[in-house]
TrEMBL record:
It comes from Brevundimonas diminuta (Pseudomonas diminuta). One of its GO terms (molecular function) is hydrolase activity, acting on carbon-nitrogen (but not peptide) bonds. It comes from the Bacteria. It holds the Pfam family Amidohydro_1. This is Imidazolonepropionase. Residues 68-437 form the Amidohydrolase-related domain. Gene3D superfamilies: Amidohydrolase, Urease, subunit C, domain 1. PANTHER family: ALPHA-D-RIBOSE 1-METHYLPHOSPHONATE 5-TRIPHOSPHATE DIPHOSPHATASE. InterPro entries: Amidohydro-rel (IPR006680), Metal-dep_hydrolase_composite (IPR011059), Metal_Hydrolase (IPR032466), Metallo-dep_Hydrolase (IPR051781).
Length: 472
């Protein structure tokens, strides 16, 4: 139990005391200057006027000089994967999140599910974000993806949910590669009955509202929400199920028939149902723009191992083989999809700020891309407060962690970001962390730069000896 300082107590010992802090309340959109933040262990034990600093005896004190303190960032959609040969490279991504101010991630499934579960219980390094994970995702029989739980009947879905409950996953991920529409809806309903959160790619063969009415907790990727705005969504879904159009053609049809009034009606219903959306706009925008940018000059390349970079090739090659019409289609779908973000906000839909960073998703660099995601939201009409809330307030709440995270307040976890500028005025301020407090441990500017240099050196060493596999 956290015991905050009581005015009648003697001087209280703390591990860390931040003084002259301007505390950022992301939920309310306010700042409070001239504050102190006292930390003991991994907990914030007091926040108050800096004039009360004499009430504490700190092992370490840091005068922030009126710099801003906010909760550390959460990336609500990442992936670890690439098979056993890339376990070490995935583990080495952990400090990359932290130096970018990301203190927690929601792993939305890959092919290293058990390894990620092990990391959740015992992080591979002290400089690792907290991990919340779905474990292996539920799919149909003979899917493209590796490491999934294949299900072809209701009994197999039940067994999959039994397994996931035994693994104590943080939510259930369901995807649409080969899973039948009927089993998709069955899985969502059954997971809800068990009190499990669900996250999904919605099959093109069912409507968004069908999934939401079944109890889906979150829609992953904004283009799945975009199709809900099509005035012909049900008919287009039926055509796709009948095999009359490819998936890419189907998405173009949804975009062509997008209707603002239809979208507003459906999004209002999503808000009523409590269905959240994780847009992952940076990832989808990067992929849509591969005809414009080859990313050879990205600073992020120096921070990601060669094995993970090799997994980018699949999407890069597929994009390069696209016809001019397919390129035009993907840009059109991207643009229509982006328009829906402020509409979801206006409808009251919870937006979970996530990036899709990790293996396979080309040039989507863990940690760095969360800042790109935030800036995209603001460029599309969200306020900096709204963009940040999707990460640090609604992210924890979605995972039933709101009591412990989401504010700089007594009793909350000491996972903090110290910034030079006010992120509520300019969301890009999150890019320049002066310090990170991770589970109560201060990582100051000198240590952050040392960590960055260490990551770059480790990647350079891997590059020097890397031999691509035939599949790469």
């Amino acid at each position: 139990m956290i015991r905050p300082y009581h005015p009648k107590s003697r001087i209280a010992p703390v591990d860390l005391l931040l003084t002259s802090a301007t505390v950022v309340d992301v939920e309310k959109g306010t700042t409070t200057p001239d504050q102190l933040v006292a930390v003991r262990g991994g907990d914030i034990v007091a926040v108050g006027p800096e004039g009360e600093a004499g009430r504490y005896r700190a092992a370490r004190t840091l005068d922030l000089g009126d710099r801003y303190v906010m909760p550390g960032l959460w990336d609500m959609h990442v992936h670890f994967g690439g098979g056993e040969p890339l376990i070490e490279e995935n583990a080495e991504l952990m400090p990359l999140f932290v130096v970018n101010g990301v203190v927690a991630v929601r792993d939305a499934a890959g092919d290293l599910a058990q390894q990620v579960l092990d990391w959740r219980a015992s992080p591979p390094t002290a400089d690792a974000p907290r991990i919340f994970t779905s474990g292996p995702k539920i799919e149909g029989v003979a899917p493209v993806w590796k490491g999934v739980i294949e299900t072809g009947s209701e009994a197999e879905v039940d067994a999959a949910l039994d397994r996931l409950q035994a693994l104590r996953v943080d939510f259930v991920k369901i995807t649409d590669n080969t899973l039948t529409p009927e089993l998709f809806l069955y899985a969502v309903r059954e997971a809800k009955k068990r009190g499990m959160k669900t996250s999904a790619h919605i099959p093109a063969s069912i409507t968004v509202l069908e999934a939401a009415e079944a109890g889906l907790s979150s829609i992953e990727h904004l283009d799945y929400a975009m199709k809900a705005g099509s005035r012909d969504e049900a008919a287009i879904a039926a055509d796709y199920l009948a095999g009359e159009y490819t998936y890419a053609q189907t998405m173009r049809r949804y975009a062509d028939t997008f209707d603002v009034e239809t979208a507003r009606r459906v999004y209002a219903r999503l808000a009523e149902l409590g269905t959240a959306v994780s847009p992952t706009l940076y990832g989808s925008t990067t992929l849509a723009n591969l005809d414009k940018d080859d990313h050879t000059h990205d600073d992020g390349l120096a921070y990601v191992g060669p094995g993970i970079r090799a997994t980018y090739d699949w999407r890069v090659q597929r994009a390069a083989q696209a016809t001019p019409q397919q390129v035009e289609d993907r840009h059109f779908v991207k643009d229509v999809t982006a328009r829906t973000l402020p509409m979801l906000r206006d409808a009251g839909v919870t937006i979970l700020t996530g990036t899709d960073a990790g293996f396979l998703n080309s040039f989507n660099y863990p940690g760095f891309s969360l800042h790109d995601e935030l800036e995209l939201y603001v460029s599309l009409g969200l306020t900096p407060r709204e963009a940040l809330a999707g990460s640090v307030v609604d992210g924890p709440r979605f995972l039933n962690q709101g009591e412990r995270y989401g504010a700089v307040a007594t009793g909350k976890s000491a996972d903090l970001l110290v910034l030079e500028a006010n992120p509520l005025a300019d969301v890009s301020a999150t890019r320049d962390a002066e310090a990170v407090v991770l589970r109560g441990r201060l990582i100051d500017a000198v240590e952050l730069e040392r960590m960055r240099a260490e990551i770059r050196a480790r990647v350079a060493a891997r590059n020097a000896v890397f031999k691509p596999s035939p599949a790469s």
